[in-house]
Amino acid sequence: MKPLQLLLLTIILLLTACSHPQVETDYDLKTDFQNASKTWSLWEERQKNECGTLNRDELERTRFYTALNQVMNEKGFLKASIPAWLVTLGYTMEDVLEHPPAMGIGGDSNGHGLGMGSMFGCGDTVHQYHQVKVIISFYRSDNKQLVWRASGAEFPPGHEASPLERNEAAKRLVQAVLKDFPPK
Q: In terms of CATH architecture, what is 23-98+124-178?
C-alpha cells in the first residue's frame, strides 16, 4: 500500500471512530427506575463539588444546563421542588496526548526465514487535542444515594464554531449520555 493511501485510510478510520461520543454507563441494579416518578431537580449543593470546569465558564455552564433541561423534558421528566431524582452535571475540557504506534517494515537477511531482520519505522509524532467530557449522575432524593451515572466524551466544536453550533454540540453530547436513562 502506498504511503498516501495508508495516510488517507488512517484519517478515514480516525474520523469514523471519533464521530460519535464515547459513553460509559453504570447503575444500581436494585433500583426500580421504571416505576419511579419522572420528576427531577438539579442538586445544587452537590453540584458545586462535581461540576469541574463548568464553574469557570458561564456560557458553557448555561449551554450544558439548557441541554440537560431540554433532553430531560424530551424524555418526559419534569422539574419539581420535591423530585424523585436529584441530578448533577459535571463538565471538563481535557487535553489528550496520543502517541500513535510506529509503523515500520521488517526484512529477513538470508531468505530462509531465519536470521537477522531489520526494522525501521516512522511514527514519532504526538497528537494533542481537546476532549469534552460530561458526567451526569442521578441520586435518589429520599436517601441521596447514587443510583445511575454516565459519562460521555467527544471532540468539541472548533474555535470558529458559532454559539448555535456549540449549543447543538452540547445537546448532542447530553443526549448521548442520557440515551439509556432510565435503564430498562
A: 2-Layer Sandwich (3.30)
